[in-house]
Amino acid sequence: MKTSFVSTQALQNALRLQVQTSQNALNQAQTEATTGQYADFGLSLGAGAGTAVNLSNSVNQLQTLVDSNSLVNTRLSSAQSALGQLSDNAQTILNALLSVNSTTDATQIQSASTEIKNAFEASTSAANLSANGEYLFGGTNVGTAPLNDYFSSSGTDAKTAYDNAFSSYFGFSQDDAQVSSITGTQMTDFLNNVVSPMFEGSDWQANWSNATDQGMTSRISTNEVVTSSTTANSEGVRKLAMASVVSVEMLGKSLSNDARSALTSFATTATGDAVTALDADRSQLGVVQSRVSDANSSLNSQIDLVKTQMNDLESVDPYDAATRVNTLTNQLETSYALTSRISQLSLLNYL
Fold first, then answer.
1. Residue 197's domain is classified under what CATH number?
2. Which of 64, 72, 85, 89 lies 20 to 30 A from 49 at CA?
3. pLDDT tens, 7-32?
4. Residue 53 within a domain
């Protein structure tokens, strides 16, 4: 029989390796017990790790849609507010026109003209409202103010076009004393056949608008895209601008009663149409807001469902994790105790 000797250093090194392994395992077990999820998905799930990655990507994509919908909601709410201001201003203009419908009092007529001008200037500001650096009524051209200021001190193409149209049709300028000779029939023909086309199609876009006909579109869910803005080319804005311009330009002139009656009748009808169209735009945006809200509810439900699947796949048994923590802690304490005892096994202690 042969006896082999084992040094205390070899015993210490063996225990040291065991302690290191146990510490790593304890750290992993503590992480899992704290988070409730595997510390190393790849190692624990194996081939199932690909499924976990796909589920995580799905959550990120759905959350991105929810976040972008927040911006869409901001745009829609701001546009609703601006449309409300436009509608209120149009109603102010309508009331001013009705107040002078059958009067010849110059002071009252001039007061109504000033009120209409102020309301239209406010409408121009509302139509040029921006949110998050984007013009709300610009359509897809969100970087440029959509509506040119007709009353700009530097002059505008719209003002020039109107003045030229008036002088070409009547043969004299608006400031000429001959405006008093304009008949009701002439005024009606001028407004219907000369002025109205100026607020439509290419004339409107050349002289008034920098907006596009197509509004902004936004994806609000994985399979739903909506138009999330309106445009300054809408009927409501055009009709409001037309009624405002003809009222401001001619209401205070020395027109005959028939001519002024034709003017106020035309402007009143256009303003009423503007109110109706603007309110229709508000209703349409309200429908879109409702769809965005429904989409968010659906997206959040999908996120919760996918997260539940992820938790089922990635979660650990909390009882098992706690048990492993206790077991590994006891093993480490035992290893520390043995290491301490072995370190004391030296002949020097017995000499």
1. 1.20.1330.10
2. 64
3. 555 555 555 555 566 566 656 666 66
4. no
